[in-house]
Structures
1.
Amino acid sequence: MKRSLFLRPALSAALLLAGSLPLTAAPQGTKGVEEFDPLAFPGKVVDDVIVPVPSEVFSVLDKLGEPNWQAELRKQAIPSTSDRTKLALLFGYTVAEGFVAVQAQDKEAVKDIGHDVISLSKSLALSKSVLPHAQAILDAADKGNWSAIRKEFDQTQKTVRDTMEQMKDMDLSQCVSLGGWLRGTASVTSVVKKSFSADRAELLNQPMLVEHFVNSISKMPGSTRDHDVVKSIQKGLASVLQQMDGAVDGFSKDAVTSIGKTCDSLLTEILAKK
Amino acid sequence: MSPPPEGTLLMKRPWSRLQALAAACVLVLGATCVYATVDESHDYAMEAATPFVEQGFIVREDYWNGEVKSGQKLQITHQLFKGNEYAFWLGTSQEGVTLDMKVYDEKNQPVQINAKADKFFMSVRVNPPKTGTYKIVFELKSKTAAGVLWALAYGYR
């Protein structure tokens, strides 16, 4: 799994603009040579990163085997708090848990998570925009309409993040993504560990996303950046990134275990009552 | 300074209010038009997605959008997972725009297949050879406008 310098978006952009990398390429499925000339790229790099939802990775794991998603459900109580940073992290966590419940096709778990979504949105003062989605999740759970539930969880997260960004709470919006990514990645490592293969482990090759989160945290206002849990996440992500950068020839089972442990320990902090 | 003639103030204030109201209406309508156009670009991207949804693609709710100088290339970095098939849908609400989009892997090899273009949108498919970071490079050239509104969405199956 050798990675080129182009993994790092900022560096990538700089190199592209400076035209310092040879980029002659053959298009897939043809014998001709297609030029991607960096000198002819007076382009702009769009900084916005869309973080994949957990089900994007889960769908690959489903194709590679039949994971026991029921065993991946945590069914953990969401602590009540007025700490908005933690609430945002918990919101992301809960939506990701919802994606696990969809994979497990567990109606009751989806409903419980739907109620957690409502409760968290009330604490975040976002219930007005979230309630229609949460209700749609509960209705679709009754019908066992899994694709509708998956879509609603995605919409719920987008609505919450958009509303936070409209309120200039970019840091909270990032925390939603972070909580979701940590929960999704914890599930992936758990499934991969139980049935290890190079193909499954390769799904953890996500350094661009980890770098994105690290950069996002470094740009957060001091009050959020210095939050105990956010500081732990920053430290944990550095360790995860190290594992990813070290996986030049693919991820070992130990590396998968290590990433999983880091995610689990961070999730324990997010879910702690204090 | 002599006071204004009687009635002037009375005449002026309602007129100012009318002016303010008219200005506010223009602003609101203008803003609505701008947002409608941005939304329309996404609508066209979703139109491009329709046949893919029928083939089992799951459309992500998040998408990229903005306005770009005509002919200026844009690059988006995105995480793809080997084992999924992806489709990217680029849309614009403006007429007379030529769209182009390619997807490159970490070694800058183009990996897109089945590129299809229409009047207001285009789509490409990608079967990522590896899990990792990919670059979506696209361009919108307008025959008439200096700036082009765009939206880029994606889906997977």
Note: Chain B has one helix and nine strands.
2.
Amino acid sequence: MGASGALGRVNYEEIGLMVGLEIHRQLDTFKLFSPVPSELTEKVDFTFERRLRPTMSELGEIDPAALEEFKKGKKYVYEGNYELSDLVYMDEEPPRGPDREALEAALQIAYLLKATPVDEVHFMRKIVIDGSNVSGFQRTAIIAMNGKVDTPWGSVGIPTICLEEDACRIVERREKEVIYRIDRLGIPLVEISTTPDIHHPEQAKVVAKYIGDALRATKKVKRGLGTIRQDLNVSIRGGARVEIKGVQELDMIPLIIEREVERQLNLLKIRDELRERGVKPNDIREEFYDVTEIFRDTGSKIIARTLKKGGKVLAIKLPKFRGLIGKEIQPGRRLGTEMADRAKKYVKGIFHIDELPNYGIREEEVEAVVERLGLGKEDAFVLVASEEETAKKALREVLKRAREAIEGVPEETRRALPDGNTQYMRPLPGKARMYPETDIPPIFISPEEKEMIKSSLPELPQERVERYVREYKIDKSLAETLVNDERDELFEELVEKGVKPSLVASVLVVVLKGLKKEVPIENITDNHIREAFELYLDGKIAKEAFEEIFKELAKRPEKSAAQVAEEKGLTLLSEEEVERIIEEVIQANIEVIKAKGMGAMGMIMGRAMAKLRGRADGKLVSSLVRKKIQELS
Amino acid sequence: MRKVEEFMRTRGLEVGDLVRITKVEGNGRIYLEGLVMPPYELSPGETLTIKLDNGYNVGILIDAIESVEVLRKGGERDRASFREVLPKRKGLPNVTILGTGGTIASRIDYKTGAVHPAFTAEELAKAVPEVFEIANLTPKLIMNILSEDMKPTYWIKIAKEVAKALNGGEDGVVIAHGTDTMGYSAAALSFLLRGLNKPVVLVGAQRSSDRPSSDSAMNLTCAVKMATSDVAEVMVVMHGETGDTYCLAHRGTKVRKMHTSRRDAFRSINDVPIAKIWKEEIEFLRSDYRKRREGEVIVDDKMEEKVAILKIYPGISGELLDFLVEAGYKGVVIEGTGLGHVPQEFIPHVQRAVEEGVAVCVTSQCLYGRVNLNVYSNGRKLLKAGAIPCEDMLPETAYVKLMWVLGHTNDLEEVRRMMLTNYAGEITPYTRPDVYLR
């Protein structure tokens, strides 16, 4: 398989593709250093405000940028909830723990990934001062090292498996403050990173799937949106390491890698062209031209609005860039898009020569700017309309990105977009600043403990599929879907309760999947499903009622299965009531029955079931109908 | 010697050495490279800790180590030197900071993970630059102890350093102090420093200064601000609430640590704090404080150390008091129940103590409210036995005060008179309704 689009097939070996994965997954235990339930909540009972001061290094140095932020009075507001917050995670009490269940799960994962646990776990404080950790650091420890995943393309190393704390959820980012919710802070995360030995987009998916399977095998991981975070580190020869964050779906991994390869190859082509044209980073100078006058009577609504508010239109010169800013580097994204992404910190957007005239800007205006800036035929301009200082800040970002284009591919952290493209997020993080968490004594893991965990490892998903086929005699594809969709635990629980395995499997897989197109089935919780099956086991609903019940629950998840069954008239009728309804049908069609005798059975059954579907067992209906017809004929 | 120290000694390993370790794991061998770290103080010492290149520390079971190869000796680390004192800026008040232990600021060696206290003026100026906009600071480390190791002789030493600074022309003094016994020290200084003419502020931190979220810098900033105010009293300045919004200045005789770990652990008990402090301004919550004045401060350092605190509880035996009397104690502060009561059986022991010339003072373990021994019969009997009811004084303050009083007189009538005389705001004349649990 090769990258799509204009590139045609790509030989990944030839271009030196290197991909590493970093997978974070929440554990479904208490918080890592305090026995608080690790649940998210929308209930906010109180807030508190903190500031984070950059720390001083051994030599008395403080990161000047961080100090500047602090001096500007940047503050963090944390939202808490009385039941689910605690002093440890408000940084008002020393840590407890760590949670033994989380530690054991991490050790199991280590063995499932053929890694070697350390003899003694040392928790570290990793400095993080964006406010996402109330304390200003994240607690993290290496649990195991030197694991591996075997794939058809070769083996991929897992240098480290860490156990760490999740950060706060961000609620809102304002100019001088950031609002966070502390409920997510401290939820245990297992972090698994691989070596950059993945050389094919599909291989990355296989590795991610294998790691995901090992995580799920422990039955200790959380499920659902936001509980898993997959980051990709992608580079090609001559390109740069780009970290892509926030990949939610496994199936997207190959596409995102292909698109990143495409992006880097195109950026290298642009670089080559710029070098060909003979431009150097130093040729790109910070000179702002005030071109406001040119746009006095512009047809561009955005510019007109800015000018009305007293803003200005500033332009910069990008020598030899004409035609290249508008060059597509990923489907629908251009070098200009990357410049705009950088400027987004300050302004909504930029205008560049390659896309003009457009957006209400006329040919004459473009020409006037070209003339004003004294541009040659290969030179380009970028415009920003805003308050003067903001416009300058935005244009500085554009200048920086332009200089980087001459160097090639910039190293950066990018965000995965739903279509497989990526967008600039921030520069790559520097090396982590870490020091020991002295409030937590090192945790010795004895050889006996290691042996015990190793000898009672949980079943891997593939083994489970085989067991289902063997033990429950269900179809292999059904079993695979159950396991892959993480319905397996629920499946076993319901079978345990006495529901026939084939029925559970078909409801969990066929019925729910069938509803996917119509209603948001992610709203249906395990509890909804449990309730529905309990109704079934108690003889209150027929199996035909599941579909209708789930359809409604997906739309109104606040309801219970029993409520829905009641409201929709899906509860089974008593035998007397069934008989009464059949009697009605018989009476309405008495002539036909008299004429055809048992020949009317099919028709009467049809009419009866139309009234009774989901409310009476089909077998009962048919035996009653048969009986009545026999009586009459 | 633990196994790890023995191992390091025999292999010639020193902290900071870059090593490559071969370790037996199951049927195979694994290799680890990293810097040798100092052994963890409280561990059994069965492991060697190394810092990997990615910054993480891991412990390696020494018994499983097959061989160690030193790739590079650690050698001397670059050592930064900092100026003790910085040039003074004209027009700013001068404040001395006395260090008693713990850390106001610290430096982290990210290579080894070591945290070093930072106490020179230059380090403080780097760590908390905004505080130097309020005053010229002269830091002086006078002792280096944990606050739980504090004792009366140290209070006197601190008092003398304070007097030296104030009488030497400083505009105020800040004392950096561990939080555990900061309330006791504040009370002690309140009695030891007679004729106080300038602010004396005790300050601490509930979260260590190495972390970005530490309360240390803000507390220090507010403390220095308070030290430049016109309040000539001993005060404790700490966070007013969990957020980094404001600090409170508490009167030294009325303040108590009421929480093991929160930033706002310090509370005024039975009294209103003196002021709310932000970096920029002070909002006074009362105006009846002692004002800055001319003159010299005197250290009245006579203290009787044979004083104890005795907490009353159901089932307490009078033997405990007898023991103190026999051991030569000169004063006992009783933390009575409720209004200041002791069990009926205990009263004869109090009477005996008083007869032996021991001063027995009564406070309440309720902390909030005033003792009153006239309401119930046991109270009246306790009074008759010669106990001194200490109004709304905190037990800790009464303890420190009794030491100081007994340093001046053994005459129990004089002791009673002095204990009931308000010297430093330790007794309020009447009980305000708004000072309970806040």
Note: DSSP finds ten helices and 23 strands in chain B.
